[in-house]
Amino acid sequence: MLSLSPLRQPPEDEAQLLAQAGLLAGMTLGELAALAGLPIPPDLKRDKGWTGILLELWLGASAGSKPEQDFAALGVELKTIPIDRQGRPLETTFVCVAPLTGNSGVVWETSHVRHKLKRVLWIPVEGERAIPLAERRVGSPLLWSPSAHEEAQLRQDWEELMDLIVLGHVERITARHGEVLQLRPKAANSKALTEAIGANGEPILTLPRGFYLKKNFTGALLARHFLL
DNA sequence: ACCTGATCATAG
DNA sequence: CTATGATCAGGT
């Protein structure tokens, strides 16, 4: 029988990764944290990435801040996603930081967004704040790649947003732009600034931005999986 | 009730 | 600062 313990090595293939992820389904974050020897914070207010780190540990992902996929050898990215009791996402999903300069000639095919989303292991986790963190249960894993339709949706939003950035209109972009992919601040606070292109082509300082998947997109891909 | 803009911790 | 991991919380 497989031992229920964190993987100390990266998984060898997708099947092994999925098998390990499957063992976690139904367990609580409290159980997984205790078995991994990880302290459980009272809530996520000051530990927003805690669930993601915990699952990385259990699945043998490279911890830390490397700008790579979580399972580089497999080309797989790990995403935990908080869900309500009906399996619908409670939050948008951060994809990557948006490049605000040096974008002449960039195309969808080689974009960071496309690369990050090429193959994703989604792990739904109960996320309602009424449920104590330690009692929240891990759901069934979903190894996903964008369908042709999903990629077309992503590409359209990405191209629209990148056009605005390149044309110096980043500060006119709001989270309402994009049907499935949105651009929002991704920073420590509202004082953190980075360089971007202004309306007259001049350098400006603005908030760092990130690409996020809207809930309608992740909700649909989860529903497709768990209803079929 | 929900979404958008703001925010939190850590490593390098 | 940028990268990783995301959720918070007030205004609409």
Q: How would you describe this structure to a colleague?
A:
The structure is a single chain. This protein has 228 residues and is an alpha+beta fold. It has a single domain, classed as DNA mismatch repair MutH/Restriction endonuclease, type II (ECO RV Endonuclease, Chain A), CATH 3.40.600. The chain is built from six helices and eight strands. The strands form three sheets. The chain has a three-stranded mixed beta sheet, sandwiched between helices. Helix 2 crosses helix 3. It is globular. The two termini are 29 Å apart. The mean pLDDT is 95. The chain binds a DNA duplex (12 and 12 nucleotides) through helix 3, strand 2 and strand 5.
Q: What is the 3D shape? A: globular
Q: What is the spatial order of strands in the main beta sheet? A: 1-3-4
Distance between the termini: 29 Å
User: What is the average of the pLDDT values?
Assistant: 95
Strand proportion: 15-25%
Keywords: Cytoplasm, DNA damage, DNA repair, Endonuclease, Hydrolase, Nuclease
Organism: Franconibacter pulveris
Domain DNA mismatch repair MutH/Type II restriction enzyme Sau3AI: 59-157
Function: Sequence-specific endonuclease that cleaves unmethylated GATC sequences. It is involved in DNA mismatch repair.
